[in-house]
Amino acid sequence: DAKTTQPNSMESNEEEPVHLPCNHSTISGTDYIHWYRQLPSQGPEYVIHGLTSNVNNRMASLAIAEDRKSSTLILHRATLRDAAVYYCILQNTGNQFYFGTGTSLTVIP
Amino acid sequence: DGGITQSPKYLFRKEGQNVTLSCEQNLNHDAMYWYRQDPGQGLRLIYYSQIVNDFQKGDIAEGYSVSREKKESFPLTVTSAQKNPTAFYLCASSIEDTQYFGPGTRLTVL
Questions:
Q1: End-to-end CA distance of chain B
Q2: Strand stretches in chain B, DSSP E
Q3: Does B74 lie at the interface with A, CB-CB under 8 angstroms?
Q4: What band does B78 get if pLDDT is binned at 50, 70 and 90?
């Protein structure tokens, strides 16, 4: 069973905010929520992570639902360089990271 | 520069041959991971190692083997028992809660 569920693809206009959703209804109380992004033929790149509280960094914001069964990655102003596949991932206490199938983000100029 | 290196970037092998993929890191990370990625799919965990001389199977370990004799190195062997080895292989290391990935090796078995 998939631990995370994401839409296959999304589009956004350049310089507009993007909200990428993720469902993780079977998350345990100690699992961290991570987001990574991947460009074609490259390794994934860390974006942000959190446990319970919303998180902000220079790349993005992470909004975590109160019941932790879903989360949303927010890119405040999409640029062409943000076009990538975005993965929502759960990390357990054994340091295993479970990747979903990701959302392919297209940014329209 | 600190980072993770994987070599080679592209690798071709004949069916039935074992092949070893290299992964080296100079980040002083204890944990290292191997993932497999098929076209249009997410990453699936093959093996991971939390510390030198110790490693655990991931979700798709059958047909693969690893060793962790040094902190810096975590080579992956794709054996002839792996029925569908053509894929993109990614190595990662981690400290605290963040994983750092190498550039990947694209293995094609002919």
A1: 36
A2: 4-7, 10-13, 19-25, 31-37, 43-51, 54-57, 64-66, 76-78, 87-95, 98-101, 105-109
A3: no
A4: very high
